[in-house]
Amino acid sequence: MDTELIQQIRDKARSLLEEGTVEGVIGYERASDGVTARPFFAYKPSATERLIFDETCAHNLVKYLLDRRGKKMAVVVKPCDSRAINLLLNEGQIERDKVFIIGVGCPGMVETSWNHKSETLQAKCRSCQLSKPLVYDFLAGGELERQAEEETYSDVVEAEAESLATRREFWLEQFGRCIRCYACRQVCPGCYCPVCFAERLEPLWVGIRIAPEENELWQTIRSFHLAGRCIGCNECERVCPVGIPLSLLNRKLEKDVKELFAFQAGLDADEPPPFATFKKEEKLELGE
Amino acid sequence: MSVEYQPKVIGFLCNWCSYAGADMAGTSRMGYPQNIRIIRVPCSGRVDPLFILKCFQSGADGVLVSGCHPGDCHYTEGNYHTRRRFALLREFLDYLGIAKERLRVEWVSASEGQRFAELVSDFTAELTELGPRSKV
């Protein structure tokens, strides 16, 4: 644990609360297992002593800003999570002057389970190249050198190379396991519709039945709604109780959006997203 | 005795160009396969990817989305959005194991009755060749 970094976060959080700049600070605290971390909301200066930061702080805290729209909040943001800030700013969901961003240089997050911390970096961290958050008001701990250990899309390219029938079989097996707990949606900073299509009864797009074909519809449209919007925090995959490789879907779309529209979500708060704009001269191999 | 395989095709046609084009094919008494079930939509931009997935889930073998030629949209720019959306969806469906040939996006104007008839015949023939879609 980097005690100096943690002290910087605590000091900043404390002074923000004492000065009344923000109503609350969203950060991490040690979970009750004593090993992993959990989100923590500090509303009193004294509570900031509980804030921590280490390689188990995988949660994307930006999601919690959505429930606190209009309130001035400070949030601890890792480099990957900072893309979510840009996404929500771009979509007009949060206001920049209502959010104080405590950025942290990130050493990469490790795989954890209850009461256990492994040495393996999470997949998203193995291909990460961000040395510091893209947007922040205060940077704790300074920039860190990051060297990507893996290609971002190597597994997607592998999956693409399989035959159509193999792909079909693979995804049906994966979707067949889905229990539709909707944890992937609840944790996603990009999923904030007041009424989700999956829960609409009129028309009933996704049936109540937990069956492979209903799950397929849910998972396909869920990821498609995030096409050009997914910022790759990979929280959906982390929280999935049955271990469906959701990042294979999200990163396939991210890769295609990059190739077709030269766009990547969350890098810039002002660039219009691919589906809100178009180029008249583009062909895209449709109807020609 | 085997029954010949007939693909089920759903067609989303925009009110202003393609639906009128299909109408033109009809009034000109041009023949085209009856496999297509046409759904009229105000604009091809109205077609949500959800509709396509729902079609496939409900047993369609192919889906046709057809609108005005780029630049001719009744709502100025609806079909430009359609084009972007479905360029991505076709790739994605293919990735999930639904051949991208099963989703076609074409531009048919109100005067192209002949072209519409040919398009449907061509698409149906292609789907017959591909065979039934493996059910979920």
Task: Give an overview in words.
The complex is a heterodimer of chains A (288) and B (136). The relative contact order of chain A is 0.12. Chain A has helices at 3-19, 79-90, 123-126, 154-161, 164-177, 183-187, 212-225, 235-239, 246-261, and strands at 24-30, 37-42, 73-77, 99-104, 110-113, 116-121, 138-140. The model of chain A has no long low-confidence stretch (mean pLDDT 92). Chain A has 288 residues and is an alpha/beta fold. A five-stranded mixed beta sheet of chain A has the order 2-1-3-4-7. Chain A has a two-stranded antiparallel sheet with strand order 5-6. Chain A folds into two domains: 3-140, no CATH class; 154-276, no CATH class. Chain A is globular. The longest helix of chain A is centred in the first third of the chain and has 17 residues, at 3-19. In chain A, helix 4 (154-161) crosses helix 9 (246-261), helix 5 packs across helix 7 (212-225) and helix 7 packs across helix 9. Chain B has 136 residues and is of the alpha/beta class. Chain B has a single domain (9-130), classed as Rossmann fold (3-Layer(aba) Sandwich), CATH 3.40.50. Chain B is 40% helix and 17% strand. Chain B contains four helices and four strands. A four-stranded parallel beta sheet of chain B has the order 2-1-3-4, sandwiched between helices. In chain B, helix 1 crosses helix 4. The longest helix of chain B is centred in the middle third of the chain and has 18 residues, at 78-95. Chain A binds chain B through residues 159-160, 164-172, 197, 205, 212-214, 216-217, 220-221, 223-224, 227-228, 252-253, 256-257, 260-261, 274-275, 278, 280, 282, 284-287, and chain B through 49-50, 53-54, 57, 70-71, 77, 80-81, 83-92, 94-99, 105-107, 134, 136.
